[in-house]
Amino acid sequence: MSSPAKNSPVLAAGCVLWRRSPADGEPEICLVHRPRYDDWSHPKGKLKRGEDALTGALREVVEETGHTARPGGELSTVHYLAGGRPKQVRYWAAEATGGGFVPTTEVDRVLWLRPQAARARLTQPRDRELVDELLRSFERT
Length: 141
Prior knowledge:
Blueprint: H1 4-7, E1 10-20, E2 27-34, E3 39-41, E4 44-46, H2 53-65, E5 67-82, E6 85-99, E7 109-113, H3 115-121, H4 125-140
Parallel strand pairs: 1-6
Antiparallel strand pairs: 1-2, 1-4, 2-3, 2-7, 5-6
């Protein structure tokens, strides 16, 4: 028999972090580069034991990008396998409110890109769908 812990999903949370461009006010999306995986993604990470998902998502944004954020609406929850184990990541739209990036061993670069450029740069197709969802939320407001 396999252990329940091995079959239970890894719980994580993150944000599609955005801001208005200082140049023209158009939306830009923040992507993080993780050298361990050599990929581009939205800031996200595992929840701490007992941590609320939104609290964890905002904590991960600060840890990975150096930016504080104002959460918006919840976006889709993404499910996939990571290291052979199911992973569940809850996402929120979040507007950057301040801060600045400092490289770490976990995240060595961030980019602020227009939505179409962000979609093209993201490594995983599931992350591209979150950009589209964020843009649809802008249209509704």
